[in-house]
Amino acid sequence: MDKLFGWERFFENIPKILPYLSVTFSIVVYATVFGLLLAIPIVLVQIKKIPVLYPVFKVYVSFMRGTPMLVQLMIIYYGIPAFIDPVFGTNINRGWSTVVFAYITFILNQGAFLSAIFYSAVTSIPYGQTEAGLSVGLTGIQTFIRIILPQMIRIALPPFGSDLVGLFQNSSLVFLIGVTDIMGRAKSIGAATKHVLEAYVFVVIIYIAISLTIRLLFYYLNRKLEYGKGEKG
C-alpha cells in the first residue's frame, strides 16, 4: 500500500503545478488594477453624494462587502449568461473563457473593498487641511495632490496590504467554476493519481510564502512612509 504522503511525489508535482501560478497572478493583477480604477469614481460619488449614483453605489458596495466571495463568483458565472444569452441569442458559457468570469467577479469585489478603504482614508483627514491649502493659493487639485494624497496613501496602505493578501487567498475559489489555477491543477493531479496530499501541501506552501511576502513588502513600505515619527535625540 502506498504511503499517505511521499516526498518523491511531492517534488514530481512541483513542475506540474508551478506554471499555473501565472493564472492566479493574472487574477490578482486584473482585480487590483481595474478594481482600483473602479474604486476611484465610487469614492468621488460618495464624497460628493451625487444623486442617483450615490444610493446605487451604496447598495453595490454593501452587497459586495456583505456576501461571500463564492456566492459572488457563482452569481457572475451563472447570472451573466442567464441575463444576456436570451436577449442577444448568445452562448456566453461557450464563447467566453471561464477565467473571464473570475476577472469580472474579482474586479467588482475589489472595486467595492478598495473604495471603502480609500473613502475611509480620505474622510479621516481633517477638512481644515484642505482649507489651509486653498487659503495659500493652491487649487483644489494641487491641494489634493500635495496635501491630501500623501496622507491618504499612508492611511490606506496597511488595509490595502491586508486586502491584497485576502484577494490572493480568495483566488483559490476560481477552480470551482473550472478555472485551472494552482488549486485547480492540484485537484486534477489528485484525481488522476489518487494522491491528493502532496499537491495540496505544495499549494499551501505557495499561498503561505506569497502571503508572507506581500505582508513583509507592505510592512516595509509602511515603515518607509512613517515620516516624522523617529526618535528625537
| SS content category | mainly alpha
Helix content: over 70%
For the biggest sheet, the summary is: none
The strand count comes to: 0
Radius of gyration, taken over Cα atoms and rounded to an integer in Å: 22 Å
Mean residue pLDDT: 89
Task: Name the shape in a single word.
Answer: flat
User: DSSP strand (E) fraction?
Assistant: under 5%
- N-to-C terminal Cα separation, in Å? 68 Å
Specify the number of helices.
10
* Helix and strand run: HHHHHHHHHH
Which stretches are poorly predicted, pLDDT < 50 over at least 5 residues? none
Key features?
mainly alpha, 233 residues
In words, what does this structure look like?
The chain is 79% helix and 0% strand. The protein has 233 residues and is mostly helical. Helix 1 (7-17) packs across helix 10 and helix 2 (21-48) packs across helix 6 (98-123). The longest helix has 31 residues, at 140-170. The protein is flat and about 75 Å long.
Question: Helices and strands in order, then pairings?
Answer:
Blueprint lengths: L6 H11 L3 H28 L4 H14 L2 H20 L3 H4 L2 H26 L3 H9 L4 H31 L11 H12 L3 H28 L9
Helix pairs in contact: 1-10, 2-3, 2-6, 3-6, 4-6, 6-8, 7-8, 8-10, 9-10
